[in-house]
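Recall from the previous lesson that a structure prediction takes nothing but the amino acid sequence as input. Here we apply that procedure to PilZ domain-containing protein from Cellvibrio mixtus. The sequence below is the only information supplied.
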Amino acid sequence: MEHRCSERYTADIKILIYRYGIPVAIGRIKNGNRYGLYIESDLADVHPLQQLGIEVLVYRSAQKLQRYKFESIVVHSNGRGFGLELDALGEDAAIQLTEMLLAAPVTPQTTELFAMVAKRLRIQAQAHNQGRPRHRYINI
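The prediction returns the following tokens.
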């Protein structure tokens, strides 16, 4: 028997999952509320107390994509996914999250999410490599 402080809302919303600010997997919010979420994902090596970021990408119109990013801590995991406790969610963010869970918004296709992640990783790699010489010469 579960003992929850507040009601969970069933959902099916695609998300990006981050470790240390880097996108590492795609998942789905299966249920949640302003305090926590259950994420279905095949992301391996997820442990309690691990910090993860999640990003929800929602189409507000045909061409406008809105991003919502949340920081969280893993509370439990099983073979199909993991439960997250949301960190320091302000009132506005909590209302937006609850509205998303109830509205079942249109999210990008999985292929679009993969393309966004690949683009973001390329940009991060370019920024990391800027200003660094390709070869280092040592004077002996």
